[in-house]
Amino acid sequence: MALRIQFFLLVFSFKLLDIAATTNIQDYTILRILLSEWQMVPPNWAGTDPCGDNWDGIGCTNQRVTSISLSSMGLIGPLPSDIVSLTELQILDLSYNGGLKGNIPQEIGSLAKLSNFFSGQIPDSIGNLTRLRYLSLNSNGFSGSIPPSIGNLKNLYWLDLADNRLTGTIPVSNGTNPGLDLLINTKHFHFGENQLSGTIPPQLFSSSMQLVHVLFDSNKLTGAIPSTLGLVTTLEVVRVDRNSISGTVPSNLNNLTSVHELYLSNNQLTGPIPNLTGMIALYYLDISNNSFTASSVPQWASTLQSLTTLIMENTNLQGGVPSGLFLLPQLQTVDLSNNKLNGTLNLGSSPSSQLQLIDLHNNSINSFTLGVEYSMELVLVGNPVCTRPELSTYCTSAYSNANYSTPSNNCLAPICSLNQTSSPNCRCAYPYTGTLVFRAPSFSGLNSSSYYHQLEGSFMESFKSLPVDSVSLSDPTRDSSDYLELSLEIFPFGRDRFNHSEVSAIGFILSNQTFKPPKEFGPFYFIGSTYLHFADSPVASSKSSNTSVVIGAAVGGSILVLLVIIVGVYAHKQKRRAERVTEHSHPFASWDPTKGSGSVPELKGARWFSFEELKKCTNNFSEANEIGSGGYGKVYRGSLLTGQLLAIKRAQQGSMQGGIEFKNEIELLSRVHHKNLVSLVGFCFEQGEQMLVYEYVPNGTLKDSLSGKSGIRLDWMRRLKIALGSARGLAYLHELANPPIIHRDVKTTNILLDERLNAKVSDFGLSKPMGDTDKDHVTTQVKGTMGYMDPEYYMTQQLTEKSDVYSFGVVLLELLTARKPIERGKYIVRDVKAAMDKTKNLYNLYEILDPVIASGSSLGGLEKFVDLAMHCVEESRVDRPTMGEVVKEIENIMQLAGLNPNAESASTSASYEEANKGNNHPYSNASLFEYSGELAPSKLEPQ
User: Which of 317-326, 639-648, 793-802, 810-819 has the highest mean pLDDT?
Assistant: First the structure.
């Protein structure tokens, strides 16, 4: 019997060696390291033969790993430097995995066969990847300068570094170092939404370049537009808007006869309006908000037969409006607002049937020839002609809302179970979702269903090799950079969910630009959501099953052979990483639901930090790094090796209140993402510690600035921007989060200001999600902060989104007065009501206005701002607006004040640039830690 067992073990020992040899042993070892470093890898990453067992996302050629495609898996962890040992790797796609953090390893340059890369930092060694075709690192948190070595990537087709925090100048070659001017074969320069400074170097452009897209929008670029730009006749999209570019527009710009979209807006351009005669391909033109020499509407505008959108807001136009302009056959939008146009407006008897909007608000038009009934939206508010009662329809600034959603295909949508959605073909499923962002669409109308139908067809064509049933588009919006955003849902065919390999394939098509939208949409990028409903992995192959049997049977001897081969060099490292992966996989193994904090938190991608990691980045939680304290615990400033600054909120051990808030913030903040909400970077639950790790917001709380504590003086314009930003954040929670979320503790200490004084709503410890059964309200214990409390919520214990609206109304009154909600027994709402007199200038509120704004030169829109605040604090919730309506009203107020609500944020506060911000931080003692637990009824009623 013993002999037979030994023979059995010997046979299986040889079998095991044969299996292990199928995949290159070095490649297998590296994949095991990735398995130990990353959470949420596909479930079939098991066994010893990744190539033979078809591990999801792993592609092989001749037993060598040549591709790793793991798009939208929800991966969490760093990118280990060991990955460079995959010497045959050609494709690395880790796109749409928000939990992947840290640096790109410096050694990445040794991956000479890498063809695509989508995540990580930007080391100078990236220039060694001479076969690289796509370098797409957009929408991350990269900082530092653009590596000049990218100029060595002569085969590069697509360069996308947009939407990061890159600084410094645009690198060009100097005889010693390379630069981007050497990329003559590259067709895409996407650098928008960064912090690049300096001039656009004239050397960057030449006639030998094949550029199609040049996107430099929303940076800090200065100087003039180089005339060499006019040499790149292949260009189709040019965006240099939202910078500080000055001087005159080069006269040779009209050489760019292939350009479809041209954005020069929101700069400091001077001289004459550029002559664009001959740019016959131009669809979209925006030159607004510049300081051009006063002139009439240029004649060439009426000759551009392809034009769909003309935006010349605030460009010093004067004289009459030429009626021929409205006859252009493709024209959809004309915005000539905030100019000095006068005389009679005559649209003619047959304006273009495509026209959707003519915006002429704030001009001097004194008469209007009313011919036929016009179907487009015409805005004349702020013109003398609005004194005529019959024109009241046209004397409003309200724009129509976009409400497009892919219609059903002649079927009746079924009632689907929780988290499922009905497809256009009326089948319930779990779709793969995300947001499409188009950087320069050629059309302006958001309700342009014909364009969206074309886009849906393009998607189905791109996905024809995959089990995709249908796609759905919805919620078209324009963001602050004038990008078009669309929600995308992709539904599986024949079943209700996708598997890992299918999601990865869809993500790859979208991330590496395999999908080509119709030309009307222009360049795009996609922000994929983590897919949470994977189908069960396929049954393991017989080889995999045999492997499991072998490993179990040969535990006495044959497994040692494999271990000797694998562990060799990596033994010590693997042991440590195996310990860490256990912690990563089960970070709440020690969570005790009996201690009053509820069930184990449900993670949606928040990063797990070890105690040692946070200890190191705070210098052992030193007093020097302490930036706040309160009943919950302390907050420390920390810095990762990447340079990212953190605010680390460390709970006092044993705090029940802290445990509840800890769980609440992880679950809510890990699944909501908006630029006006503070981001949760991660958490630590280890060694009895509860720590929340936030992005560091440098300019403190709104309360600190209003009280003078921060040293930042907020002028009226800045207060309007802060009100708009925080309102947008709350509107996102109420209307776009799924399920909707009620903040429940809106106040000025929970609104933080970033480096550009943009508002970010924070502290979600008391927040409450609205379930499917909570359509009208949530019945819950009364919690909140005195002075901000919704009286109806207090009386009925029925919490609604309108409770946040009431609190926000109090915040608006604080922005006006800089007073505390309750101070020396006086309640701000009652004080403002008592002082108001709408028959007098500024509603008779001059005495209680904050002196900082009362002494300012302009308070445009103040009366409407007061009206909005008082509307928000109506005692009955049905009389209050929604946060979405609040956002629109603040946008209207800003337009009345001569401000662009979507313009790039920049402070005009006199003291902002010179304020000593060395001691500013967002978590002062009165900030996140002001007690806001259950309130006794006797303490809630203002005196």
Answer: 810-819
Are 897 and 860 in contact by the 8 Å Cβ rule? The answer is yes
Query: SS in 3 state form for 233-275?
Result: CCCCEEECCCCCCEECCCHHHHHCCCCCEEECCCCEECCCCCC
pLDDT tens, position by position, 394-405: 887 655 556 789
Q: How far apart are alpha carbons 888 and 874 in whole angstroms?
A: 19
Evaluate whether residue 722 is within a structural domain.
yes
Q: Which residue pairs from 872-876 have beta carbons closer than 8 angstroms and sit at least 24 positions apart in sequence?
A: 872/805, 872/806, 872/808, 872/809, 872/812, 873/806, 873/809, 873/810, 873/813, 873/829, 874/806, 875/791, 875/792, 876/792
The SS3 call for residue 436 is strand
Residues in Cβ contact with 437 at an 8 Å cutoff, skipping those fewer than 6 apart:
479, 483, 484, 485, 524, 525, 526, 527
The answer to whether the CB of 229 falls within 8 A of the CB of 214 is yes
Q: Note whether 710 and 678 are same-domain residues.
A: no
Decide if pLDDT at 938 tops 60: no
Residue 690 sits in a domain of what CATH number?
3.30.200.20
Verify that 842 and 730 share a domain, yes or no: yes
Q: Of 696, 718, 742, which residue constitutes the final position of a domain?
A: 696
- The angle subtended at Cα 434 by Cα 429 and Cα 437, nearest 5°, is 145
Domain count, the chain: 4
What span, in angstroms and rounded, lies between the C-alpha atoms of 269 and 761? 35
Contact 614, 682 (CB under 8 A): no
738 DSSP assignment: S
Shared-domain flag, residues 830 and 717? yes
Q: How many alpha carbons fall within 13 Å on the CB side of residue 684? A: 21
Cis peptide upstream of residue 739 (ω within 30 degrees of 0):
yes
Tell me, yes or no, whether 315 lies in a domain: no
CB atoms within 10 A of CB 739: 10
Among 49, 82, 745, 850, which one carries the catalytic annotation? 745
* 606 lies in the same domain as 711: no
Say if 321 falls within a structural domain: no
Has 772 been annotated as catalytic?
no
Backbone angles phi, psi at 286, to 5 degrees: -135, 110
* Contacts of 13 by beta carbon, 8 Å cutoff, 6+ apart: 554, 557, 558, 561
How many whole angstroms separate alpha carbon 366 and alpha carbon 323?
16
Domain endpoint, select from 663, 696, 729: 696
Q: Do 453 and 601 fall within a single domain?
A: no
CB 714 within 8 A of CB 769: no
884 within 8 A of 734, measured Cβ to Cβ:
yes
If you search the block for the tokens 């460390």, which residue do you land on?
650
pLDDT in tens, 154-174: 989 888 888 888 999 999 999
Does residue 910 sit within a domain?
yes
649: annotated binding-site residue? yes
Q: Considering the chain, what is the average pLDDT of its residues? A: 80
* Cβ neighbours, 10 Å, residue 420: 17
SS3 for 178-231, per residue? CCHHHCCCCCEEECCCCCCEEECCHHHCCCCCCCCEEECCCCEEECCCCHHHHH
Average pLDDT over residues 196-214: 96
Range picked from 196-205, 689-698, 704-713, 740-749 for highest mean pLDDT: 196-205
CATH code for the domain of 461:
3.30.70
Say which CATH number the domain at 821 has: 1.10.510.10
The parent domain of residue 559 ranges over: 2-18+539-585
CA-to-CA distance for 436 and 37, rounded, in angstroms? 30
| Same domain? 791 vs 924 | yes
Q: Are 432 and 497 in contact (CB under 8 A)?
A: no
Residue with tokens 């990212």: 644
Looking at the structure, tell me whether residues 917 and 823 fall in a common domain: yes
More confident residue, 605 or 348: 348
Task: State whether 910 and 804 are in the same domain.
Answer: yes
By three-state DSSP, how is residue 277 classified? Answer: coil
